[in-house]
Predict the 3D structure of the following.
Amino acid sequence: MINTLLLLAFVLPVPLFGRRGGEQTDATAMKELRQVFAAMNISVTGDHPRCREPNLYSLYVRGSRQVVVCPRGDQSDTLRHEGWHAVQSLCLSGRPWLSRETIEQRLTGTARSELQAFVTANRWQREAEARVIASLKVNAYRVELEKACGLTDAQPSS
């Protein structure tokens, strides 16, 4: 029975990383987030060939200043997640922002399970950190982004 369930999980399309169909995008949050990224010269687009992939919600185009948010799911949550990957690359040069202990404290059970099932050990910290930061409200997210990118002198929140 367990083997059948595991097989079905990989055969059936599964929305990853907490994004479920039918979630509504907070238009105000999306507008604010777009402004934050525009001020950092990071473009946010929903028009990308990979958005044709049915289970792809977003991506950060590594080595660029572009975040793609496909038109599905909660786009403001998606933008916070992929936007943080841009911050990790462009501002932090791949260094972790949150300690492993902080991440462990803030991860939800669902996030923890999905990370364990779908993310390799060498990418866990990066993905888990993006999940935790994406769960913040827009104002708190903006504060962390500004700190991480040196726009303020503050340190990571614990």
User: Anything to note?
Assistant: Confidence is low (pLDDT under 50) at residues 1-21. The chain is about 50% helix and 5% strand. The CA atoms of residues 38 and 44 lie 8 Å apart.
